[in-house]
Structures are given as C-alpha cells and as structure tokens.
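Its record is set out here:
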Amino acid sequence: DKVYTCGQHPHIRVWGKPIDSLTSNSAAWQMIRQINLDGPAKSLSLDERGSEGVASTTCGSLWHFGEDPPTRIESGHSEEILDVAYSDDGELLASCAADGRVMVWTVKGAQHLKSFDGSRHPCLCIAFAPTGSSIIAGYSDGVARELALTGSTSSVSNAVLIDQEAITAISYSSSGHYILCGLQKGGVRALKPQRNEVNAITCMFVEEGAILSMSYSSNHPDLWLATSSVGTLRVFKYESYSGRSELILSDSFANSAPLFAEFSRSQQSMIILGGMAIGVGIHFYDIEAQRVVKKFTEMDQIATCLSISPSNYLVAIGTEDCLVKVIDYDAGTFQDFAGHSHSLKKLKFASRGDMIVSSGSTEMVTWQVCL
C-alpha cells in the first residue's frame, strides 16, 4: 500500500492511497511523507513490510529510515575513490579519494574506524606501513603525509613536501626502511624515515608521464619496478650499501598509454603486465630475456587496474565495462564478476590472497576469494 520514489533531489518520497479508496483503481496516490537526505538517493532497499529501509546517496553516505527521522549510518567518500590498500596482516582496509579524505575500515564486518580530513587536496595514493601503525598518503599538492592509526584521534604525525607536482603512486620498500613516491611527471623520490622523521629525498629517474604503479619482487627483495601513463617499464636494483637504486631494465610498448605491472610470485624473473599500453589481456615479461614471452588474450577487455594474488596463480584486473576479471594464468581460465556500476579505478588483493577490494567512482566492493 506504499510506493517509495527517489530521483535528482535530496529526498525520498513515500506515496499511498487514502484508506477508504484502497480498492479503487481510480483514486489518486498521495504523498504521505518526505524523507530528507544529504543528497540524491541512488539506491534503496526495504524490509518485507515496507516500513524500514536503507538508502545510499550520491554523496557517498548510507541512511537508515523508518518511522523516526532518518539516521546516517556512515558517510563514505563524496568524490571518486582514487586508491585502496590492505594492511600487511589483512585486518584493515583503507581508501582515499578526490575529496581529500582517507578512510580506514576493518575487513571483518566493514566497521569504520577512522577518517582523516587533514588536507583539502585530493589524496591520490596510500600504503600501509609494514608495522600497521600508520598509513603514508600522497596528495596532489606534492606532500606525503603519515597518518597515525594508533590513539583515539585522527592526526597527521609527519608531513614532507616531496615536489611541486602531485604524488601519483606510493610504496614502502620490502624492508620498510624507505618509501618510494612516484610523481605526476614521471620522477620517483625515495624518502628515508629515521626516528619517525622523513629525511633525505633522492631523485631516481625522470620521464614524461605519471607513475602509475610501483612494486617489489617477493623473490628478490632488492628489485622494484615502476610503470607510467605513457607505457614505460623500469626495473631497479636497490644497493643497500649506497642507499641508491640502479636502473637495470628499461622498456616501452607500442601504445603510449597507461601500463600496470607487478612481479610474479611464482616465477622469479617474470613481470605481469596489463593496460592500454599492451592492449587486450595480460602479458608476461621476462626480465632476463627483456621481452614479452607469453600472452593471455582469451578475452576482449583491457585492464584499467591490476593485482596479483600472493598465494596462487590468480591475477585480477578491472575493466571499463564495470567487471572484476579473475584470471588463473596456470590453468589458462578466467571468470567475470559484476558488482560495480562504474568502470574500475583500483583493485588490490589482500596479503593472504583471500580477499579482493575494487573501486570505481565512489563505490568500493570487497570480494572473498573461494578456491
């Protein structure tokens, strides 16, 4: 006997018929209630009786409504999510967005723990410290901020200006002794935190095109790679005695377009590539041979993001058509998962390989990996 409607305005309207005309088809429906929200509702769900429900808004918030005034359950990001990350122990999940907020959640139960609103600039990338006590975040103003997870307040414990350009990718080294910051115009800086302070900044290399991905080899912890938005791949070897990184491989691909890459966990000298730079599917790049030695192209999608499972032969990619595609490159099979209404921006496996988080626009979805 009720109809709920939502549209371009920040409210939900409830419609009903007068009690004495419920059996009449000609009686006009009347608005009996208006539920005001903080933005237009993009989805809503009702209980079996139609007396209570939950609505999500375009501002990234979630509301519960019933007989009482609506209650905001938790506010999410109001603008596009730009990066996601798991803690090393797989217990925490973080997201950052163009609204400048960094939000931290528990993986189990999706409980919101903290929000950091310390900058009005978009936060482009995040990484958990190996200890799990803080998050390092890179912003569009070229500042890296360390966000403390301990204590009751949401505070910035350290902040350092890396460069005058945006930080587009950020990663801790395998040892945790330094932090790599990839920049908008292709440079990479190395931060060396000592005694909870960020000290020396060293330029690694400069090229045109923003740094999109950086990762370390689990088989050779002294090796790390960086890829760019113009399709370049660089591999470096870190020299602990000098504290510098030596360029050992440089390559580019046919398309001057985004390239994503990670080291294979199962094959020591292999890098797995995806993105517009290589086209459809994923490619396998042998460091020793310095060329692509294998391609998996049994699909018609191009990766918009990429992550490799640390525990098996799975690779996950996001696509423009809102899919999470999980590829078993040992068996040569893949499976598609639909859960987004926007093209995917970021995607990450948890450290144990049992979970995946994916994001597109203001949506964030977690998936459990069942093998």
Summary: The mean pLDDT is 86. The first strand starts at residue 2 and ends at 6. Residues 100 and 347 are 19 Å apart (CA to CA).
